[in-house]
Design a protein that fits this description.
Keywords: Lyase, Pyridoxal phosphate. This is cysteine-S-conjugate beta-lyase. Belongs to the class-II pyridoxal-phosphate-dependent aminotransferase family. MalY/PatB cystathionine beta-lyase subfamily. Its EC number is 4.4.1.13. 36% of the residues lie in helices and 14% in strands. The chain is α/β, with parallel strands linked by helices. The strands form 3 sheets. The protein has a 7-stranded mixed β-sheet, sandwiched between helices. β12 and β13 form a beta hairpin. α2 packs antiparallel against α10. It is globular, with a radius of gyration of 21 Å.
Length: 391
Amino acid sequence: MSQDRTAFDFTTPLDRRVYPTTKWHLYDEDVLPLWVADMDFAVAPAIQTALAERLAHPVFGYTHADRTLKQTLCQWSHERYGWEIKPDWQHWLPGVVPALHVASLALTEPGDGVLTVTPIYPPFLKVADNTGRTTQTAPMRAPTENDPLWRLDFDAMEAAVTPRTRLLFWCHPHNPTGRVFDEEELSRLADFIERHDLIVCSDELHCDLILDGSAHRPLAMAEPRLASRTITLWAASKTFNVAGLTSACAVISDDDLRARFKRGCVGLMPSNNIMGETAAQAAYARGEPWRQALLDQLRDNVALIESFVARWPGVHMSIPQATYLAWLDLREAGLGETPQKEVLTRARVALNNGADFGWPGFARLNFGTGYALLEEALTRMDTLLSAGNEP
């Protein structure tokens, strides 16, 4: 279902430097920041209205996820994924990264292994060290001429796992490659998880940002045999651009696993965020037209990136199936060992360093921004990367 974008404003530039902003204040003012994963678009009007209405009541004490919010998420899951979840399966908390740390502390012992595949969202690679566990990684298979997609390398995963591996951090759809894993891969992953008796934290934050028309299949739904060992992590933060309101939900169908996870939150998790839950309720109840319009805008942005990459010798990109993130292979672009530094210094465009994701020589580009700003950033990069220009 496509939505008329004229009903929403994805073009008017918003001055994000007016308030302290991670994305726009890290670099000098002449730098165009296409790095950290938030968007430059105004949130859905339904969310703005809901927040204004909540602000009209001038008391902001402790809160909790009420039955209405939980039922709304159940309905969203039913309508978008065909997964029938229950309100009692939900545990709302202030963010997915805290949830990963809770899972490590509550479900493993010091020295146990926490496994993930790379490249991966950088916090995944820090949780084990932060919690006294052992970081274990397995590289994915990079695209080739015959296969343009990033794939799971199950041989590498078997080589990385040990008898002390207890937890798998899984990202689906995948950040940073934009992969939407297919049924065969999910089935093989389930075999691997069962064979090694792992618990899975499935980060599915980008599941409502699928660009290629395929449907998201939550891991615990796609592979019901994993339901008793899976923590599904959802949030409105990425899809609806409300990351600063720090609210997320752990969906856990197994009573024992959910109880262990909730006990791990005690003393570590602050009270839920009033505004975050207000925004989530509005997003899931009334944000669908805005989301559809957003997806159309992001598809146009992907097409723009493709047109530039096509004329950049030595630069490769697997077209993202989901997310607003492009994963660029710059290893053959003639920009040295840290190409994102060259892009920053010489083109004044800020990208994420692929080394932080476990893959040096790559860079992550956030295209969740206005078309005109994205075009300006790509034009700057073109001076370094296009055929005929000296690097």
